[in-house]
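Ops channel
N.P.: pipeline sanity check, posting one input/output pair.
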């Protein structure tokens, strides 16, 4: 069973690496975040989702926190995917692999967290529909404090 799990993990990592490697440039758009998090000072900029016909894809965004209190992103949801996880890329046995980020992604006080290809990101698995360039993909970000943030990520090739 462990060997089967390792094969599955490797397959998911390979697919994710392909998605992440294919990510191109981002635009400098911003989103208006309606939510408790925005009211508390946390903002989101340049949200995008890599276009994908099916399977899985990744979402990227820069979260900024001008307050004196760290915020920790602990989960995300979207109607286009029944399984959404926060992921990180780590070195394992001499190779970069993707894994779920336990404990969430910290957005430091008076700082920012950049979710980007090759680093921390939001993984959307089991897409219920294709994500095409130009699509508007709603995401709800939830922080450990209970704050939530609604953002709209743009599909990009």
């Amino acid at each position: 069973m462990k060997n089967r799990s390792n094969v599955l993990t490797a397959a998911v990592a390979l697919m994710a690496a392909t998605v992440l490697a294919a990510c191109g440039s981002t635009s400098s758009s911003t989103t208006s975040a309606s939510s408790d998090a925005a009211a508390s000072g946390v903002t989101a900029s340049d949200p995008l989702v890599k276009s994908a016909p099916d399977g899985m894809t990744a979402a990227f965004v820069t979260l900024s926190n001008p307050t004196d209190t760290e915020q920790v992103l602990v989960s995300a949801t979207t109607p286009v995917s029944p399984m959404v996880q926060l992921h990180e890329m780590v070195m394992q046995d001499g190779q970069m692999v993707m894994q779920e980020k336990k404990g969430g992604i910290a957005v430091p006080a008076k700082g920012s967290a950049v979710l980007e290809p090759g680093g921390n990101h939001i993984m959307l698995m089991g897409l219920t529909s294709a994500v095409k360039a130009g699509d508007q993909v709603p995401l709800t970000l939830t922080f450990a404090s209970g704050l939530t943030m609604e953002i709209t990520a743009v599909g990009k090739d």
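N.P.: looks fine end to end. DSSP finds two helices and ten strands in the chain.
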